[in-house]
Amino acid sequence: MTPIQQPEIENFFNRYETRFNEALRGGEPDVEETVNSFAEYFIEASPAGVVAAKNDDQFKASVRQGWTFYKQIGILAMEILSKQISILDDMHALVKIHWNSAFVRKNNTHGEIDFDVFYLIQKKDEHLRIFAYITGDEQQALKDEGLVP
User: Fold this and answer.
1) For 27, which DSSP code?
2) CA distances from 15 to 33, 45, 76 (A)
3) pLDDT reported for residue 66
4) Facing residues of 32 across strands?
5) CB-based contacts of 136: which residues, under 8 Å, 6+ apart?
6) C-alpha torsion 68→94→13→78, nearest 10
7) Strand order in the sheet with 110-124
8) Which of 16, 64, 91, 148 would suit a FRET pair with 7, their CA atoms being 20 to 30 Å apart?
9) pLDDT in tens, the chain (149 residues)
10) Measuring CA to CA, which residue among 134, 141, 131 is closest to residue 55?
11) Quick check: helix, strand or coil at residue 149?
12) CA-based angle 105:111:113, to the nearest 5?
């Protein structure tokens, strides 16, 4: 196996960003590629708690639902502003993505939210997969901007 490399991690997240934006624009993004970006089991940590999830049909449906939710509340685009990549060993990396989310409120005013997500990535069988991620308080940020009640 080829050790995990920074360029492949950058490409992995560039494709992730592209699929997200295709969904926001009403296109038909590759749901399978998004689902396959996650390990069979993965962990989400946020201020709401820690959740262990299985990459199954329910997760696949939640990916589509997530894209629909973001479109409905006015998210226009998700842009990666920066990537900080720390290679941990031949198979693992910690990646800090600084995201920018552009949106339009129901009153037609525009805004942006910047936030960080930390991802733990594993390379297995020449494929990169997210096996854990850590987020801030997304729901509070959306409330603060008037996008959700």
Assistant:
1) -
2) 9, 23, 17
3) 94
4) none
5) 46, 47, 115, 116
6) 50
7) 49-54, 38-46, 127-135, 110-124, 92-104, 75-87
8) 64
9) 899 999 999 999 999 999 999 999 988 888 999 999 999 999 999 999 999 999 999 999 999 999 999 999 999 999 999 999 999 999 999 999 999 999 999 999 999 999 999 999 999 999 999 999 999 999 999 999 999 99
10) 131
11) coil
12) 115
In the block, tokens 């198979």 appear at 91
Amino acid in the structure at residue 107: N
Structure tokens at 144: 């603060």
Which contiguous run of DSSP H or E holds residue 40?
A: strand 38-46
> What end-to-end distance do the CA atoms of the chain give, in Å?
48
Question: pTM higher than 0.90, yes or no?
Answer: yes
pLDDT for 25: 94
The DSSP secondary structure of 41-85, one letter per residue, reads EEEEEETTEEEEEE-SHHHHHHHHHHHHHHHHHTEEEEEEEEEEE
Q: Is 39 helix (H, G, I), strand (E, B) or coil?
A: strand
Q: Which of 92, 69, 94 is nearest to 84 (CA)?
A: 94
